[in-house]
Design brief:
The complex is a heterodimer of chains A (about 110) and B (about 900). With about 110 residues, chain A is an alpha+beta fold. Chain A has four helices and three strands; from the N terminus they run αβααββα. Chain B is elongated and about 135 Å long. Classes of the chains: A alpha+beta (about 110), B alpha+beta (about 900).
């Protein structure tokens, strides 16, 4: 994953992807754009990281990919969260919250 | 559930990779389109938007590759890809690949073949129920010259009564009988058995049942169990035969059953029970009542629950000591019984030769492995530049190792598969040699053999490919850059050529070990062919006749028939001499022996045992045995006349050392009653005949005249210079005497001798094949190293020539290198060969394990093959044009 902050946040890509799909299915480019928006440009997933991650998550059964048409009528592969993916997102969210709290404690304390 | 999903994903990767790839291509293309569309929406011109999108996207190929990497089970795909690449690379080097595959096929095949035989014979249990619990009982009559002797009837009864560590004991005595009734009577090889023998072995008849207790009662009506083959051939596989009566030896006999197809009695070879008996009959008399001196029973026991063979052995020897005290017949020599595991005793004679052959095959494998490793190293160094390039382009050590392994695997597996075919041929060929001890081998390959083959090929390919990898990539670790090393050089790669030299030295040494061993075995075989047997096999033709008891009822009638036949044959011009004997040399009839004692000897001394044979006048002349004293039997030595015997020179020397034996009297047991109760006069002395084993003198021998001691069947021996003519004469003479009399087993005496030496021929032939292969492999190895060295030093040689070196000096340079390799290899090899020869010692006959001639000849052969291998590279070196130095 290429991030502007280096590789400290490796492994966060999965969480970010799952999060962007929480509300609605999206295709690859939309996912990347959404992540960039949500993180205010702090994270950007290039295709070299995005597509491997998507396929990995799909193989784990967290995402389900299917071909559909975009608003402009182009065919694209849309990913949507499966129930297992939703459960995973919940797990990762709480995990992340714990890490953040711990780090905050260390840094502020 | 997780593993199910994993499995589904794996299946998709493996079986639907193409569709996944297409899908991925489409997805990436659509993403690129999408990106460009978004850029257009921000106002960029379509072409520019496309360019920017490409830039932002980065490498499509990389993204694709990385996505593929995420797939479950992609590692398998990688392996296939590597193997495919290896196969393509190897196809581009067909000579190299073919050489490796052929070598691998040859040695893996040889090893597989021999393993399959070893497995069937030595590892696989006998085809009986719970065979590990079967033991064979021997009686040690060493004092009488008979260390592995059968038991007497009362001894079996004693063991049955007293042994607690053996739950059952059965016995057999092989003999012959005539299948009479019907038009053509047939001589059968039968076994007289105790009723329970097959139950002890745990084999039930396929049709009908075991003998019943009443079949064993003295005076019971005769009963018989048929072998499957006899039932098929003689009784047209008619199941209704069971319960019917057939005529055996002129008596109506009840068929109680048919033994299963392929059932054979696997007993120790020296138990003299042929494994292809055609029928079995219960003794029909109380065997416990016989004399204790009449030893004829081959006894098989089944261990009681919880007893070990050692327990049984201790118990039977204790019983032997006890009955030795209880029964006066034994005098001062109590019987010495032993119980040995049946399987081990059965393969006793072939275990050593097989171990030797297996060892030879393993050496060959090693030798070929060295050769292939050498080839791989040579090829790897030639491809160093290719490897260096790949390394420079980012292929890690792992990738290079993978490639080496893949190449080794492709070659090894191809070689292993081809080796299986080689093995199938080899086993067929080996069985065609038909060594006596190998009759149990079916030659079928089962999973264990296939596994052995695959395992061997696998290990082999791993070793050679690692050797190759180590020489090329391993150097990287030593700080020697691959690219730099690949640059042209004059005397580089020293370490590597040293390694190759060392490998070749090992090869020569292994080659010498094999050639010496084969030489010793071959010498043994040749010496055996010229062993002084006491008779000559070359010009003798043998046959048997089976006078039917229905037609020839009295001894006089049979004597008349035999006499008339012998006279008719003796008169034929193609026949030089003719005689008949109860036991042909090396035939499979049970041995017949008699206790004997000189009449003038100390009466308390235990009698010794001698091999007994019945002969007709002329037998000794017919087999070319030398009469050293006295006379041959004549037709006058018949029933009414004084009882006479001819003894061998060993008996004469032992009984009457330094004195003439003619006219002396002996007590002996011509009637096989168990005690030496007849007095016979010695009328002649012949040289000892090695009629049981060609490589050793067995016991003393006594010959009785057929007219006084009748035995059946008699085998005739005809001495002739024209075998076909003699064979025709025999048939004509028999037909004239009695057109219904069958002549069978007509074969040269050589055939019996060949059978007796078949195991040695087997090891000698294999040894020769192995050592020929070893010579070729060693020569190829030397050639490879020298040719490579010359090619590598071409520039150096050219410079030397340019500055005035003579071609002969260059020649000497190469020859010296070959000589050094050869000398080191041979020195090492002599040490190895001496160690190997010590292990072979028991297989050798009239040749010592350190026989100087054999070593010299083997060394000479290797030196010659090294010289031949060196000639090409040496000449090529001397012909290097000096101009080369300037060109390169």
């Amino acid at each position: 994953m290429s991030t502007k902050r280096g590789s400290v946040l490796r492994g966060t890509a999965d969480l970010l992807i799952l999060r962007t799909l929480e509300l609605e299915p999206r295709h690859g480019v939309a996912i990347a754009e959404r992540i960039e928006q949500l993180t205010r440009g702090e994270f950007s997933l290039g295709p070299g990281s995005l597509f491997p991650a998507l396929h990995r998550l799909e193989q784990r059964g967290w995402l389900q990919g299917e071909w559909a048409e975009t608003e402009e009528g182009r065919r694209a592969r849309f990913y949507r969260l499966t129930p297992a993916g939703r459960a995973q997102l919940r797990r990762e969210k709480s995990e992340w919250a714990r890490v953040v709290a711990a780090m905050k404690h260390v840094l502020d304390g | 559930m997780a593993w199910l999903r994993w499995l589904r994903a794996w299946c998709r990767t493996t079986f639907r990779g193409r569709q996944l790839d297409a899908d991925l291509d489409a997805e990436l293309a659509s993403a690129l389109d999408e990106l460009a569309a978004r850029l257009r929406r921000r106002g960029l011109a379509p072409a520019e938007a496309r360019r920017q999108a490409r830039l932002a996207f980065g490498g499509v190929a990389q993204a694709k590759e990385r996505t593929r990497d995420e797939r479950v089970g992609i590692a398998f795909e990688r392996v296939w890809a590597n193997l495919g690449y290896a196969a393509r690379t190897l196809k581009a080097a067909p000579a190299f690949s073919l050489a490796v595959v052929a070598t691998c096929a040859l040695v893996v095949g040889a090893n597989t073949a021999i393993f399959s035989i070893v497995k069937e014979l030595l590892l696989q249990p006998l085809p009986y129920r719970d065979p590990a619990r079967l033991v064979f009982i021997w009686s040690d009559l060493a004092a009488a010259g008979y260390p592995r002797a059968p038991l007497a009837g009362p001894e079996l009864a004693d063991l049955r009564e007293r042994a607690t560590r053996l739950e059952a004991l059965g016995a057999i005595w092989a003999s012959t009988a005539q299948l009479t009734g019907g038009d053509d009577p047939e001589q059968l090889r039968i076994g007289w058995v105790t009723r329970n023998l097959f139950q002890v072995l745990g084999v039930d008849p396929a049709i009908g049942g075991h003998f019943r207790p009443e079949d064993e009662e003295p005076g019971a009506p005769p009963a018989i169990l048929l072998s499957w083959d006899l039932w098929q051939r003689r009784f047209a596989a008619d199941p209704a035969i069971v319960g019917c009566r057939i005529e055996v030896n002129g008596l109506s006999t009840l068929v109680t059953g048919v033994m299963p197809r392929g059932f054979r009695l696997w007993l120790p070879a020296d138990a003299s029970v042929p494994d292809d008996l055609q029928a079995w009959r219960p003794f029909g008399r109380d065997i416990a009542l016989g004399p204790r001196g009449q030893q004829y029973l081959r006894v098989v026991g089944r261990l009681a629950a919880g007893a070990s063979p050692a327990d049984a052995n201790a118990e039977v020897s204790a019983i032997g000591r006890a009955i030795g005290r209880e029964f006066a017949e034994y005098g001062a020599t109590p019987p010495v019984f032993s119980a040995v595991p049946l399987h081990g005793d059965t393969v006793r004679d072939v275990r050593q030769p097989l171990a030797a052959v297996f060892g030879g095959a393993a050496l060959l494998l090693l030798l070929a492995g060295v050769n292939i490793a050498n080839l791989f190293v040579a090829r790897a160094s030639a491809r160093r530049q290719q490897f260096a390039l790949r390394a420079a382009l980012g292929a890690g050590r792992g990738r290079l190792l993978q490639q080496c392994l893949a190449e080794g695997l492709v070659l090894g597996m191809a070689g292993g598969a081809a080796g299986l075919a080689v093995a199938a041929f080899a086993v067929e060929g080996l069985l065609a040699l038909r060594p006596d001890g190998l009759t149990r081998v079916s030659g079928r390959f089962d999973l264990a053999v296939l596994g052995f083959n695959a395992g061997l090929a696998l290990v082999w390919s791993l070793v050679v490919s690692l050797a190759a990898f180590w020489t090329v990539a391993g150097r990287e670790a030593a700080g020697e850059g691959l690219l730099r090393d690949a640059a042209p050089r004059i005397a580089g790669g020293l370490a590597e050529s040293r390694l190759r030299g060392a490998l070749v030295v090992c090869q020569i040494a292994l080659g010498l070990v094999l050639v010496v061993a084969a030489g010793l075995l071959a010498t043994t075989f040749v010496r055996l062919q010229h062993a002084s047997l006491g008779f000559s096999t070359g010009s003798a033709l043998t046959f048997r006749i089976a006078p039917s008891p229905g037609t020839y009822r009295t001894a006089a009638e049979i004597n008349a028939l035999q006499g008339a036949l012998q006279d008719a044959l003796a008169a034929h011009p193609a026949i030089d001499a003719v005689g008949a004997v109860s036991h042909l040399p090396f035939d499979s009839l049970p041995n017949w022996s008699t206790p004997y004692a000189p009449l003038d000897a100390d009466p308390t001394a235990p009698p010794r045992d001698a091999d007994a044979r019945t002969v007709t006048p002329g037998y000794f002349a017919a087999i070319g045995a030398a009469l050293v004293e006295g006379r041959d039997f004549t037709s006058g030595d018949d029933e009414g006349a004084r009882r006479v015997a001819i003894v061998d020179h060993r008996l004469a020397e032992r009984a009457w050392p330094g004195q003439p034996a003619i006219g002396r009297l002996l007590r002996a047991d011509p009637g096989a009653s168990g005690t030496a109760d007849a007095v016979v006069a010695v009328v002649g002395v012949v040289r000892h005949l090695r009629h049981r084993r060609p490589d050793e003198e067995v016991r003393e021998q006594i010959y009785f005249p057929q007219r006084q001691v009748r035995r059946s069947p008699l085998a005739f021996v005809v001495k002739t210079r024209h075998r076909p003519e003699a064979a025709a004469a025999v048939k004509a003479a028999v037909a004239r005497l009695d057109p219904r009399l069958p002549v069978y087993d007509m074969r040269p005496l050589d055939a019996y001798f060949a059978r007796a030496t078949s195991v040695r021929r087997f090891t000698a032939v294999l040894g020769a094949a192995f050592s020929a292969t070893a010579l070729v492999l060693a020569a190829v190895g030397v050639y490879g190293v020298l040719a490579y060295a010359v090619a590598r030093r071409r520039r150096e040689i050219a410079i030397r020539l340019a500055v005035g070196a003579r071609a002969s000096a260059i020649l000497a340079l190469v020859v010296r290198e070959a000589a050094l390799l050869g000398a080191a290899g041979l020195a090492l090899g002599v040490a190895g060969a001496m160690a190997a020869a010590r292990l072979l010692q028991s297989q050798l006959y009239e040749v010592g394990p350190y026989d100087a001639w054999t070593y010299a000849a083997a060394g000479g052969m290797l030196a010659l093959s090294i010289a031949l291998a060196a000639a090409g590279p040496a000449v090529r070196a001397a012909r290097v044009p000096a101009l080369d130095a300037l060109r390169s």
